[in-house]
Amino acid sequence: MCMDKNSEGYHDPTAGTAWNNMRREERRQEAERLSMISSLIPVMKQTAELAGFEVIGRITLKDKATGKEYR
Length: 71
Fold this sequence. Notes:
Elements: H1 13-50, E1 61-62, E2 69-70
Antiparallel strand pairs: 1-2
């Protein structure tokens, strides 16, 4: 669906701009989550190491707010 056109097919930049702004915010939030995960995984591995364990498999995290899983 083209967001730069209204239901009658005429050019409508307002709808397209609003859609792009929403997507930009979603991408920013996703980048923030990925950055947090990138910081969290080494801490989890180090904690396991300090407790005498080694992480040998993939760590899967689930965002409680969105329900999205990160593998």
